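Fold this sequence, please.
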Amino acid sequence: MTIDVTDATFDKVVLQSDKPVIVDFWAEWCGPCRMVGPIVKEIGGDFDGRAVVTKLDVDNNPEVSSKYGIRNIPTILFFKNGQIVDKQVGAVPKNVLVSKLEAIL
């Protein structure tokens, strides 16, 4: 399962989570984001109960995007205990994201 987060819900869903969290920063107009989106959704199902998988639309949530210096999308940040522990910029195959997530479980 993937959760849509916003500027208003980011702290509660991502920073206060007791599980590792993936945040997919994306936008509707972004071609590579449309490639990564289904992969992120699959990972959400694969890791349900073990990790929190989220998506944040950068156009509608400029506060969080700016706070984390998101300049290129898709950018995927990996959080553990409220801290960024890994990052992936650009479209990559599913196995790359899975291995990064498994490393922080």
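The mean pLDDT is 97. The first strand starts at residue 2 and ends at 4.
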